[in-house]
Amino acid sequence: MSLSRYTPDTLRDLCASPFETIIDVRAPSEYAQDHVPGAINLPVLSDAERAQVGTIYTQDSPFKARKIGAALVAQNAAHHLQTALVHKPGGWAPLVYCWRGGQRSGSFATILSQIGWRVSVLEGGYKSWRRMVQTQLYETAFPAPVLLLDGGTGTGKTDILHHAAAMGAQVIDLEGLAQHRGSVFGSTGPQPSQKLFETRLARAMAMLDPKRPVLIEAESNRIGAIRLPPALWDAMRGADLVQITAPLDARAHYIAERYAQMSQDSAQLSQILDGLRKHHPAARVQAWQAMIAQPVDLARDLIAQHYDRRYAPAPRSATVLEKITLADMSQTTLKQAAHTLCDTAARKGPKS
Fold first, then answer.
1. pLDDT tens for residues 132-182?
2. How many CA atoms lie within 13 A of 3 on its CB side?
3. Do 58 and 11 fall within a single domain?
4. Which of 168, 158, 231, 167 is nearest to 198 (CA)?
5. Which of 19, 56, 195, 228 is deepest in the core (most CB within 10 A)?
6. Which domain holds residue 67?
7. Residue 201 contacts by C-beta under 8 Å, 6 or more apart in sequence?
8. Residue percentage of the chain with pLDDT more than 70
9. Residue 98 among the catalytic residues
């Protein structure tokens, strides 16, 4: 019985595909590097097993490697059937993929199809997905008009964007996709690989309505270790702006609250502040480290002495469509700012 092969024409097709589950059968390290959005990892070979089979194939015997590999695939498939897939109903319809749509996905899909499930294999595997991502990001113009939200650190830009998204606006949260906030406190955990960030970004771009503006926070072309693709960066550099300002004291309290958990780890925060020695005299950094137990005071001084002095204002050529001055950093005020942002995007109008 031949397996059903699924060949999506576009990223949007795959992101909106009707499959109930997308299964990545590659090794865990491959999955961690990048994977189709929403896919779960049910490896038919672990990282160690994959290396073992590869070594036998190149240094001993391809036949022996295939035989050992088949036994391992069968063992791992049995484990998945008894655990992750044990409660799947008879009408379940998964999509399975491996690196290139070959033996690993074919073997696992065959087992699933013999049970009676309506399984399909992604034609070309992960490599076909990666080609579509690269085409979207590096060979295609950004698909929608961009409106940038611009403002200093601690002005609540990310919260405003999230409120705007809840109100129906098109939003791409670049810092969220990159798992990195634009401050010295930056990281919200380990950043994804460049490939995984690009997958997340390409998916977000593929789902955009090209006739409506998309709201994006003003960034540099790097977010932590992540690089923005040129097409997006060019669209951002030519975009109109909405500028946000807020009182220094309100911003300081906002940052202190936002990073309250980090400020409780004085050793970690001291190490992070050490990274500012390349920008400031040692005495100033030491003064900040001495303020760790007073997070509001620390945030206030960092804003005044570091963030705002290094803050790059918008290019003179950029058109500022709206200036929003926040009286405070309460969620009510940030929601009001989001309403104004949405109204400004609506006035900007559809892409011609």
1. 999 999 999 999 999 999 999 999 999 999 999 999 999 999 999 998 876
2. 28
3. yes
4. 231
5. 228
6. 4-136
7. 137, 172, 174, 177, 229, 232
8. 95
9. yes
36, 98, 109, 112: which is the annotated catalytic residue?
98
End-to-end CA distance of the chain: 50
pLDDT higher than threshold 90 for residue 36: yes
Say if residue 115 is in the same domain as residue 148. no
- Domain CATH number, residue 231: 3.40.50
Do 243 and 319 sit in the same domain of this protein? Answer: yes
Beta bridge partners of 307: none
Q: What is the tally of structural domains in the chain?
A: 2
Query: Is residue 186 over pLDDT 70?
Result: no
What is the full DSSP assignment across 255-310?
HHHHTHHHHT-HHHHHHHHHGGGGTS-HHHHHHHHHTTT-HHHHHHHHIIIIIHHH
Q: Which amino acid makes up residue 48?
A: A
- Tokens 């992101």: give the residue: 15
Specify the pTM. Answer: 0.90
Nearest to 118 by CA among 88, 82, 160: 88
Q: What is the pLDDT of residue 211?
A: 94
Check if the beta carbon of residue 291 is closer than 8 Å to that of residue 297.
yes
Question: What confidence score (pLDDT) does residue 56 get?
Answer: 96
Q: CA-to-CA distance for 72 and 268, rounded, in angstroms?
A: 43
CA-CA distance, 278 to 42, in Å (whole number)?
45
Q: Residue 210: helix, strand or coil by DSSP? A: coil
